[in-house]
Amino acid sequence: MAGGASTPRLAAAVSEAGGLGSLAAGYKTADGMYQEIKQVRSLTSRPFGVNLFMPQPEYADPAAVEVYRNQLAGEATWYETELGDTDVKRDDGYEAKLAILRDDPVPLVSFTFGCPTRKDVQALARVGTTTVVTVTTPEEALAAQEAGADAVCVQGVEAGGHQGTHRDNPETDRAGIGLLSLLTQVREAVRLPLIATGGLMRGAQVAAVLAAGADLAQLGTAFLVTPESGAHALHKQALTDPRFVRTELTRAFSGRPARGLVNRFLREHGPYAPAAYPQVHYLTSGLRKAAAKAGDPQAMALWAGQGHRLARELPAAELVEVLVAELDAARAVLAGHGAAGPGAGDGTDGAA
């Protein structure tokens, strides 16, 4: 949830309610991350996590980026803004952020867009930090296990925002695996605890992934509409707006596959966006901000998981309470079915 949606208030509220809040460090400076960590600590004494983006290798074709820049020239004129500079660092300040997290540890650090080295994992382990690696395939989970990670976050293709693939290979853009199938594959591949994420919006869905082999569940889109979320008001409204009926994986806004609500910009530019992250992210940054300022969601990156229509406008702590109550209710139903056998009681079958 990098890019503004994640806030210290949101992370602290979730942790205070008994969940594990997470602070996104992506797109922030190392000092910016540190200041937000201090804010979380001022709001809660409970555990929380910090998510880091892994440095990205150089594989973008500069010529393809320039072609895309030319394609977006009309958008820049329309929104009266400039297209961004694509001569940017690809490491997101990773080493500087890691140094801060070693010197002033937080309870948990998670990694996206790749796998940290064993050396980095061990350095965090020495200061008492639990490490989690986002994975989208069994092979990525095995790499995380080899690196010594404490757990993996298993991200199904249903997830909103960026897919956390370790390699950005355009040939696999449509090869994403659904969460339930992926959980089973990863469970049979590694011995690590599994955190399930992707499209989860209700406590009953959490019960389902726990029954399927997950140890924990992680929700993102469900918290986008909370008052503590830093998502733009237009983004929050769009999640349940009947004009936005579906999501799609696209490179249009960042150059990396990410799931968002299908709007005009995604439809018109998605088919032509190059595999060039983070260059495209910075190229379109001004456009997205200008569209938001103009009150036009049709050119904003409206990241959302497949369950976005199930979003509920509740304070974060209340949403955690509701999810826990739904989880408990679903578990009670499953336990009742297990005791009485399939089809007993309410006329449903044992697979509910």
UniProtKB/TrEMBL annotation:
Keywords: Detoxification, Flavoprotein, FMN, Monooxygenase, Nucleotide-binding, Oxidoreductase. It comes from the Bacteria. InterPro entries: Aldolase_TIM, NMO. Its cofactor is FMN. It catalyses: 3 propionate 3-nitronate + 3 O2 + H2O = 3 3-oxopropanoate + 2 nitrate + nitrite + H2O2 + 3 H(+). GO terms for biological process: response to toxic substance. SUPFAM superfamilies: Inosine monophosphate dehydrogenase (IMPDH). One of its GO terms (molecular function) is nucleotide binding. Nitronate monooxygenase that uses molecular oxygen to catalyze the oxidative denitrification of alkyl nitronates. Acts on propionate 3-nitronate (P3N), the presumed physiological substrate. Probably functions in the detoxification of P3N, a metabolic poison produced by plants and fungi as a defense mechanism. Belongs to the nitronate monooxygenase family. NMO class I subfamily. PANTHER family: NITRONATE MONOOXYGENASE-RELATED. This is Probable nitronate monooxygenase. It comes from Streptomyces longispororuber.
